[in-house]
Design goal:
This protein is of the alpha+beta class. The protein has one domain. It is built from two helices and two strands; from the N terminus they run αββα. The protein has a two-stranded antiparallel sheet. β1 (42-47) and β2 form a beta hairpin. The longest helix is centred in the first third of the chain and has 25 residues, at 8-32. It is elongated, with a radius of gyration of 20 Å. It starts with 7 loop residues before the first helix and ends with a helix. The relative contact order is 0.13.
């Protein structure tokens, strides 16, 4: 257990956290783009011969909650 007292671990954890936050923001930007799939708003995936997957965007409140979570975690990390 004495191996984890080194101050390098806090830098490592902070770096991994910052990289994770950047990856979350990148995911958010990629997911926010609209893609035209088909005329009937489906992705082309069909299950059981009649069940189709629709290409609906995430609800706006969910996107804003994700943004608030990333911003809060960045401020918390800074403190």
């Amino acid at each position: 257990m004495s191996d984890f007292i080194n101050s390098g671990w806090s830098v490592y954890v902070a770096l991994v956290t910052v990289l994770s936050l950047l990856a979350c923001l990148g995911l958010l930007i990629i997911a926010a783009r609209r893609r035209v799939m088909a005329n009937d708003n489906t992705t082309g995936h069909v299950w059981d011969e009649d069940l189709r997957e629709l290409n609906n965007p995430l609800p706006r409140w969910w996107m804003w909650l994700f943004i608030i979570t990333v911003a809060f975690s960045a401020v918390y990390l800074a403190f």
